[in-house]
Write the structure tokens for this entry.
Amino acid sequence: MIELKRLSPSDGIEIYDLLQSIPREENGLQNKVNGMTYEEYKQWLIGKQVESEQEGIVDGWKVPSTTYWLYVDGVPVGFGNVRTYLTEALKKVGGNIGYGIASPFRGKGYGKELLKLLLTKAKEAGIERALLTIRKDNIASQAVAYSNGGVLTETADERVYFWIDTN
Ligand SMILES: CC(C)(COP(=O)(O)OP(=O)(O)OC[C@H]1O[C@@H](n2cnc3c(N)ncnc32)[C@H](O)[C@@H]1OP(=O)(O)O)[C@@H](O)C(=O)NCCC(=O)NCCS
């Protein structure tokens, strides 16, 4: 069974271990928990939950985002973030949705499933068209976007831009 679970302050060691296995940064995807102690992670969970419930734009980069864990048969294998609001900065780098699968679980179709489920969350949050900003050399992520109905609308020096209709 494949399902998303929303980040919660009650998340425990299995999510902590997942996030230690995912780099702090990969292809623009940030994972600040990598390198944190367990206590720091528990504080981070609280902050993330508060942030996801904030309304409106906080500043140029920091807008409310909601994090979800992807579980496959009860095992967490990846995560994604949904941002409801886009600033001019986030229209260039970041977009509405970011995602990652831990490396032992890649190449099994989970990235495609993860984005599909995140798009349903984006739709529930009122996003009609979701923007994905993907590095030009990130072929796997572009394949994930295409397989979910992504339309490549722009190519810049470092990134390509996909829009996905959430309906
Ligand atoms: C991008 C990412 C989420 C893909 O996850 P995944 O579980 O391996 O993806 P899937 O198994 O669903 O594969 C999706 C497609 O990518 C292709 N693919 C997977 N790994 C690939 C690779 N290393 N090179 C080229 N294509 C690859 C698959 O063949 C599949 O293509 P298909 O639709 O033609 O069958 C994962 O590689 C990842 O977490 N990368 C690091 C973080 C990141 O780049 N996030 C995206 C930021 S925009």
